[in-house]
Amino acid sequence: MRNKLIVANWKMNFTVSEALKFIAGLPREAKMELEDAEVVICPPFTALYALDEAIEGIPFQLGAQNMHWEESGPFTGEISPLFLKEMNIKYVILGHSERRQHFQETDSTINKKLALALQQKLIPIVCIGETVSDHKEGQTFEVLEGQIKKILDGQLKADLGSLVWAYEPIWAIGTGKNASPEQSQEVAQWMRKLIAKILDAPTAESMRILYGGSVSEEKARGFLKQPDIDGLLVGGASLDPKKFADIIMSAAPAQ
Ligand code: PEP
């Protein structure tokens, strides 16, 4: 059975003191253990250490927003997965569309990052998604298939069951527009079938697939009800403790 996963992507927001204030300001019920659901906060690198201490006793995990594909070397400004491992970081987001857009990341660099993340036993949250023009031209499935195949190329199948995919239509990120829950289900179900063909059915079944793109506290439950949507990657709404708490609570079983 796949646990639900709610991931906050804070992007380039929050100083250390603001990050601590966020945790302190989260309503109590959002900091309690959830049945069959996990919460991951991905802050800027600079806040990871302080947050690791601040979440002691709160069942949250920490994730990084990026990492390099090498363990060490002359890569000024980059972060090695070894640094993350030593800090207790469990998850890492790879290939977010903002990194593809502003930092020239490609499926091929994401492929290298994925191989090292898996080797280091970090749980990768791999982002894929189509642009607005792909969407309008009906190219969504073709584009996603290309991304998935390139990212999975040459990976060791035995390691891939823990992989988390984030389906994030680029036209929905930070725009207030969403794919509908039904559209996201259609894509997630199709992804699982494709991955079963490329790898095998048990691996495809064990991978979690998140939806991301302008998720709000009102809309979260609609996505989480879909059988192939295993959670949410949340940007803007994860910066507000009240809104994020409501999103976390939507992953709790209905009373
Ligand atoms: C994201 O950054 O991954 C994201 C989904 O952002 P937002 O929720 O703001 O659209």
Q: How are the SSEs placed, and which strands pair?
A:
Layout (H helix, E strand, L loop, with lengths): L3 E6 L6 H10 L11 E6 L5 H7 L5 E5 L16 H6 L4 E4 L2 H7 L3 H13 L3 E6 L3 H5 L3 H13 L11 E4 L13 H18 L2 H6 L1 E5 L7 H5 L6 E4 L6 H10 L5
Parallel strand pairs: 1-2, 1-8, 2-3, 3-4, 4-5, 5-6, 6-7, 7-8
Helix pairs in contact: 1-2, 5-7, 7-8
The chain binds phosphoenolpyruvate.
Phosphoenolpyruvate (PEP) binds next to β8.
Provide structural commentary.
The chain is α/β, with parallel strands linked by helices. The chain has a single domain, classed as Aldolase class I (TIM Barrel, Alpha-Beta Barrel). 39% of the residues lie in helices and 16% in strands. It has helices at 16-25, 48-54, 81-86, 97-103, 107-119, 132-136, 140-152, 181-198, 201-206, 220-224, 241-250, and strands at 4-9, 37-42, 60-64, 91-94, 123-128, 164-167, 208-212, 231-234. An 8-stranded parallel barrel has the order 1-2-3-4-5-6-7-8, surrounded by 5 helices. Helix 2 (48-54) links the parallel strand 2 (37-42) and strand 3. Helix 1 (16-25) runs parallel beside helix 2. The longest helix has 18 residues, at 181-198. The model has no long low-confidence stretch (mean pLDDT 96).
